Each structure stands twice: as structure tokens, then as C-alpha cells.
Amino acid sequence: MIRRELKKYRLPDGPGVYLFKKGRKILYIGKAASLRDRVRSYFSADLVNGRGQAIVGMVDDATSVSYQKTDSVLEALLLEASLIKRHQPPFNIEQKDNKSWNYVVITKEPARPDDSGRSGGAFPRVLIVRGRELYQGWDKADIKHLFGPFPHGGQLRDAMKMVRRIFPFRDRCTPCDGQLRRTTPHSNSRELEYKDGKVRECKPCFNRQIGLCPGVCSGEMTKEKYAQTIRSIRELFSGNFKGLKRRLAREMKEAVKREDFEEAEKLRRQISALEHVRDVSLIKNEKLVSAGGGTRIEAFDIAHTAGKETVGVMTVLDNGEPYKAAYRKFNVRTATNDDIAALKEVLSRRLNHSEWPLPRVFVVDGGKAQLRAAGIVLKSAGVMIPVVGVVKDEFHRPERVIGDERMIQAHERDILLANNEAHRFAIGFHRARQRKSFGR
Prior knowledge:
By secondary structure, the protein is of the alpha+beta class. The chain has helices at about 35-40, 45-50, 55-60, 75-85, 90-95, 130-135, 155-165, 205-210, 225-235, 240-255, 260-275, 280-285, 340-350, 370-380, 405-440; strands at about 15-20, 25-30, 65-70, 100-105, 125-130, 145-150, 180-185, 190-195, 200, 295-305, 310-320, 320, 330, 360-365, 385-390, 400-405. It has 4 domains: about 5-75, 3-Layer(aba) Sandwich (GIY-YIG endonuclease), CATH 3.40.1440; about 100-235, no CATH class; about 240-280; about 295-440, 2-Layer Sandwich (Nucleotidyltransferase, domain 5), CATH 3.30.420.
């Protein structure tokens, strides 16, 4: 093919999947945020530098291009994988070894003899699996549904984050065997009665606390409800977007009729999310940078060992997603054995950077002392932004969030995620400092 032949196809400036063909044979399948711009790029003079000689040869051999429009890049990503699996285009398959592909697996969990509806058998996991793992370590009997191959691992992971926020699922947590009794006072933990008659506390996993797990681990989710979630994910990855939205709309009307308004609202949110999927990270793998209009959340944490190699970090969530380019590290200079003083130093140094956008809320790791310290620093700098603190239990797991109630209600999931990112980032930075110190 040559470039001027593209005019007759009237490629749209929107998302979809394109297919290069030689006669009726499909040579290559790809997805695009803009079909027009993406297909045009195959006819640039420097194509060999970006895509290699094989793709240049493919374009020369092709006699036509066809395409399928989609409503979002997420749909294009899923459709691309489905079409590659069905047609096995030679220039897709030859470009990548089978073991380098990525797949989405919905597991077939072994049921227990005394399955009460809360065992692993009732709650399949949804996982991203590399081809080499699939071929070497998986038994086909363990796989209920398999979707893929997906050529772009990073984009698939971004897609899964979107999907999981719409349809929270189990990945690696273990379901409880107990029956839900009650929520313990002033806590997000649960008390469950087990088959041996004993009552034990069952604390939800971190993913449950931030809304990415429906409560499988703590016994809050029934197998019937979870089956509906899996059905939705299965329809989504099968490319049945329109059918999925129609079914959810039908279920929402039924929930309203029986006056189950909580269920109706959940279904309404899912439908709305499917209709307004954010494609930014799938288009360029970039995260949005808030300029004051978005929901930017900053979290801070301190790490040290008995006052040595004290460090502080700042992590950023922007519109619900970690924005790692804005993460910052601080070597604590003055307060090496005082967490409160170290936090004050780090916050003060952060506020010296007027070029960094200010967040909607500051998150600190700790209780009332850390909350007061942060408030003092912000007030002295003339910054009137809410602060919240994440209080941990003895195992350093989030127990409750304190501070500005309005912010907690509006952004609790993102607050917990930002805090978890800060803890992970601080530990990694501290360990790197220790290794460097030992090597001196």
C-alpha cells in the first residue's frame, strides 16, 4: 500500500481497531486512540526505526485496511485481543513469542466438601498472567475463563485498574469460612462465628478497605452476588459492552421495583462508569497532572531504624490514580529520631516548592499528634488545606481515618491508597539508604 490510498477509507479520528489485509488474509491487527492518526503513522519515512523491517514489509504487502470503531480505548484494547486470538495474524504472532503475551484468567476454584457459600469455590479470582506462567505453571482444570492474548502488558494493567473500580473482584485474598455476625463498634473490622462455634475478629484486606475487593475476605459478599460480578467481567472481556450495559440497566429497574435502592444506585454507578471510561492512561500511559481542578491527594510518611537513616516521602494520587512522576524523597536533616519533628521538616520543605500544585487534601501516617503537627506547619505557611491522618493497628494495617470528616467521606478510598503508596515508597527508600550506608 501507499499513503495516498488511505483517503478512500475515511479513517475516523476516534478509537477503534484496524486490520491490515492482503486480499482477504489479515496480516496485522492493532488498536488506536485515533484510527486516522495511527494508521497514517505506518506510512511515515522513519517507520523502520520505530517498528522494524518486518512491519515495513507488512505495509508493503498489504492491499487494504479495514477498521472497527469503538466508544473507548478500553473497548479497543479488549477487541484487539479478541480479534488476534480469533485470526492469529502472522505479523502479530511473529512479532512476539507466545510466552511474552499477557492473559486475563478467571480461575475455577476448588470447592470444599462443606462449602457454605463463603469458600474459595464460590469466589473465582481474576488475575493477569504472563504467557510463560500460563504454559509452565497452570493446569487447565484451574482456569474457568481465559481472555487474550493482550500485546501490551502495561496497558492491560491500566485497563484492569479501571475494570476493578467498576466491578470489584477477588485477586489473591483468602475468603473467610465464618458467617458474618456484626460490625465491631468504632472499627471497620468484622466479628465472625466459625463452624467450631468460636467468634473471631476478621479484618478486611487492604483492597476491601479501598473498595477494590467486594468483601470476599471478610465474609461480606455472597456467592450469588459475586457470580453477578464475574458475569459482568466476563461479558466485558468478551467485548459485549452494549449487552452488558443493557443487562445492568434492566437489573437496575428491577431493583427499583422491589425498592432495593442501594442496589439500584450501585448499578447506576456501574452503568455511568462504563459510559464514561477514562482512556487517558491507555492512550499514552500518562497520568493526569492536576493544576488545581482535579482531585490531587498528597500523602507523607517517615521511615527510619532506631533514628538512623531517617527519610521522608511524598506520594501523589491524581484523580484516583498514583502519579509516580510527582513522588518525592526527602533525606531528613535535623529530626533524625523524632517522627513528629521529621514530619514537620518534610512538610515544610514540600511547601517551599511553590511550583508544585497544591492538593485537595494532605494525608499523614499517624494519629492526633501527627495531625496537629501537620496543621501547625500548614497554618504557619498560610495554607488552608484539610489534613487527615491514617491510624494503624499493631500490624501497621489501616484502622481508621481521622481529621476532616468531609474529605474522609468524599475520598476515603483514595486517602487509604495514597497512604499505602507512601508507606511502600518510604520503606523502599529507607532500605536503599541502609544498603548504601552499609556499603560505605
